[in-house]
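Worked problem 6 (solution included).
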Amino acid sequence: MSGPLAVLMYHGLHAGPDAAGRFDPVYSVHPDAFAAQLDWLLEKGYCAIGAGGRAMPSDDRRVAITFDDGDVSNFDVALPLLRERGMVATFFITSGFVDQPGMLSSAQVALLADAGMEIGAHGHSHAFLEDLDDAALAAELRDSRTRLSALAGQAVESMALPGGRGSERERRAARALGYAHLFGSVPGPNRDAGGDRWLQRIAVTRGMKLQEFASLVAWRGPRPRLSRMRFEALSWPKRVLGNAGYERLRARLLQVAR
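Solution. The predicted structure is:
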C-alpha cells in the first residue's frame, strides 16, 4: 500500500508585481521560496510524480507538483528549477489563455511537454463549471482538452476544476469526455490515491514559511488544521454570494490591501 499523496497547487512564480506574468498577491510564490521548497522535498526523499500517476513509485514519499492557469513564469522560472533537480510537474493550463499577454505561448506549452512535464487542462475560459448549463459545460471541457492535446502532442487526461469547484455532474461530464484524473482544492492528504481519481490539492501561497510548507506536505501538526479551517471559512461566502459575487468581493479586498 502506498502512503498519502500530497498534491501541491501553485500558480505563478514572481519576485514581485513587476515580474513577467500575472502577479497575484496571494498565489504568486517567490522563485527563491519555490526553489527552497523543491530542495526540501529532495532532502526529505520525496519523489515528484505526474498528477496523472505517471511513474508512480511504491515509496510512501510521493508528491505531485501542479501549476494552474498557465502563467508564463511556469516556463521561464518553474521549468529550469525543476529540470535542475530532475523533477517533474503537471501544468493545468486554461487553453483560452494560451498566447495571451503574461501567459504561456503555444510553443512553450509544446516545450513543457517535450521536457517531460505533464500537461493537464484547467478549462477553456476558466469559467466555474457548476455555473454552466450542460451544453456550455461540454464545450468548455471538450475545447480545452482538444486544443491542449494538439499543442502538447500527448493525450490530456488530467484536469483541475477552475476554482476547485464542481460536483458530481461536472466530474461525470469530464470523465465522459476522456479526463481520467480530476482535481479539486479541498486541502487534504489524499490517503486513497489509486484508480479513477478525484483528488484534492494543497495551495502554496506567497509568504508561506518553509516550516509551514513541510507541515502541509506531511499533513502533520497544526498547520493542516488551520488550512482546512480557512478553506471552510471561505466556503461560506462562496455559497452565499455565488461564484461571480465571491470573485468580485475578493478582487475588491485585494485592491484595498495593496
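Discussion: The two ends are 47 Å apart (CA to CA).
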